[in-house]
């Protein structure tokens, strides 16, 4: 067993009940404390561990991790060291933070532990490329039912390959960044000419994304059985969508301005190692996939996901509860398919799951589905209704795994809608 994953491991750092960040998690992020230089941090309870400070004090000796990798604006250099060293780092941090404290670090806690409420969390990786998949069968079926033929909701290719498109990396922002309502062309009436103005059908998409942890060369394929070796960890992801802009522009080349204006990611990357105890079987795939997509074993994770909407000056209402285990196409299949043509990967690349919807109405992962294209308004706890997102609304995604007494969480991916310029 990975040392940090031991279910009975306890920390001398106070970890409140129900915390996303017990010692069995130790996710990585980039933090900035009171204007100091940004650096690598690890979450534990309500605190952030300054990994660079531990390096300076010799607590990371023997791990072959250069100081430049932990005193850095991005995690890319640390991730690029490979899983053997990042796993060893996570295990060393667990030993430093465990109750027995073999490194006598507790007496120095004030020097390397910062309250999370006093730090700024920054975008954790420098994202070179971003791909968004369309891997929830329930979501694809719902959308196909709304816009095409209910009896043939899935397009012919959907059950044979992980459908995806290349998105815009420059507009991915960290949780807490306000989101400006986009302007663009729409066609409110199918018989009228298009008009220009703010999107009226602004939506969220509850997704998760994985961070690529291994670079490849052009022409190289990553086999599905080795794909997880090239994945560092997972984050929460909200691929904001302007449905009216998207509807007008997407034929024939797919999403463009209706997606590229903003996407929000959570600041903490939860490693695949931390998720190991929460593996589950994926949905059965029928028809049988081609050999390069065949994989065995438990390739998905039991991650409970929730979206909540808070109107301006109001209180939060949970509007969606779903689970990552519903995904038809796994992260291993997504990565293998992405590289089957020889497309090269770079450390820090991001690949998102696509909207994660479950089999029941309350598990639909977008306003488009929850309000069924605006025909069934969502009633919030204050009695107000929503078909799509309004200015001043704050949308928050959360997610966690739980097994026995161990709960591993992802923090939040949250954004507030600002009026269009």
**What would the CATH topology of the largest domain be?**
Fumarylacetoacetate hydrolase, domain 2
Mean pLDDT: 97
Low-confidence stretches: none
Query: How many helices?
Result: 11
Instruction: Tell me the strand percentage band.
Output: 25-35%
Shape: globular
- Rg (C-alpha, Å): 22 Å
Describe this structure in words.
With about 425 residues, the chain is α+β, with helices and mostly antiparallel strands. The protein folds into 2 domains: about 10-120, SH3 type barrels (Roll), CATH 2.30.30; about 130-420, Fumarylacetoacetase-like, C-terminal domain (Fumarylacetoacetate hydrolase, domain 2, Alpha-Beta Complex). Helix content is about 15%, strand content about 25%. It contains 11 helices and 26 strands. Strands 6, 7, 8, 13, 14, 16, 17 and 22 form an 8-stranded mixed sheet that branches. Strands 4-3-2-1-5 form a 5-stranded antiparallel sheet. A 5-stranded mixed sheet has the order 9-26-25-20-21, with no helix packed on it. A hairpin with a 2-residue loop joins strand 25 (about 395-405) and strand 26 (about 405-420). The termini are far apart. About 50% of the residues are buried.
Overview in brief:
The protein is 17% helix and 27% strand.
Write the layout of secondary structure elements.
Layout: E1 28-33, E2 39-44, E3 47-50, H1 51-56, H2 67-70, H3 76-79, H4 83-97, H5 109-112, E4 113-115, E5 119-122, E6 130-133, H6 137-147, E7 164-166, E8 172-174, E9 179-180, E10 183-186, E11 195-198, E12 202-203, E13 206-212, E14 231-238, E15 241-242, H7 243-249, H8 257-260, E16 263-265, E17 270-271, H9 272-275, E18 279-280, E19 300-301, E20 304-310, E21 317-323, H10 331-339, E22 350-352, H11 367-370, E23 378-379, E24 385-386, E25 394-403, E26 406-418
Parallel strand pairs: 6-22, 8-16, 9-26
Antiparallel strand pairs: 1-2, 1-5, 2-3, 3-4, 6-7, 10-11, 12-15, 13-14, 13-22, 14-16, 14-17, 18-19, 20-21, 20-25, 23-24, 25-26
């Amino acid at each position: 067993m990975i040392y940090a994953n031991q279910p009975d491991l306890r920390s001398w750092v106070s970890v409140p009940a129900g915390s996303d960040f017990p010692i069995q998690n130790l996710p990585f992020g980039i933090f900035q404390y009171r204007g100091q230089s940004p650096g690598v941090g690890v979450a534990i309870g309500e605190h952030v561990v300054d990994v660079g400070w531990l390096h300076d004090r010799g607590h990371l000796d023997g791990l072959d991790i250069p100081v430049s990798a932990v005193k850095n604006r991005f995690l890319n250099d640390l991730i690029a060291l490979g899983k053997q060293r990042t796993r060893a780092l996570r295990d060393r941090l667990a030993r430093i933070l465990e109750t027995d404290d073999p490194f006598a670090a507790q007496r120095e806690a004030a020097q390397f532990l910062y309250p999370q409420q006093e730090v700024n969390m920054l975008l954790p990786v420098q994202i070179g490329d971003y791909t968004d998949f369309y891997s929830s069968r329930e979501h694809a079926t719902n959308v196909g039912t709304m816009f095409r033929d209910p009896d043939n909701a899935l397009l012919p290719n959907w059950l044979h390959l992980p459908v995806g498109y290349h998105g815009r990396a420059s507009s991915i922002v960290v949780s807490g960044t306000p989101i400006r309502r986009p302007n663009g062309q729409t066609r409110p009436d199918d018989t009228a000419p298009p008009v220009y103005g703010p999107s009226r059908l602004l939506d969220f998409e509850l997704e998760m994304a994985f961070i690529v942890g291994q670079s490849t060369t052009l022409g190289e394929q990553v086999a599905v059985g080795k794909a997880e070796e090239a994945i560092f960890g997972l984050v929460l992801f909200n691929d904001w969508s302007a449905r009216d802009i998207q509807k007008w522009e997407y034929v024939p080349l797919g999403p463009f301005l209706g997606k590229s204006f903003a996407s929000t990611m959570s600041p903490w990357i939860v490693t695949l190692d931390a998720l190991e105890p929460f593996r589950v079987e994926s949905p059965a795939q029928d028809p049988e996939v081609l050999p390069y997509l065949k994989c065995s074993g438990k390739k998905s994770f039991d991650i409970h996901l929730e979206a909540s909407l808070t109107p301006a000056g109001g209180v939060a209402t949970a509007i969606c509860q779903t689970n990552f285990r519903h995904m038809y196409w796994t992260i291993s299949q997504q990565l293998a398919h992405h590289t089957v043509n020889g497309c090269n990967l770079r450390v820090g690349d991001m690949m998102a799951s696509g909207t994660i919807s479950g089999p029941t109405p309350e598990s639909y992962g977008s306003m488009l589905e929850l309000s069924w294209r605006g025909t069934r308004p969502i009633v919030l706890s204050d009695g107000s209704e929503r078909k799509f997102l309004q200015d001043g609304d704050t949308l928050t995604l959360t997610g966690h795994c739980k097994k026995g007494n161990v709960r591993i969480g992802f923090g939040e991916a949250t954004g507030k809608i600002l009026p269009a310029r």
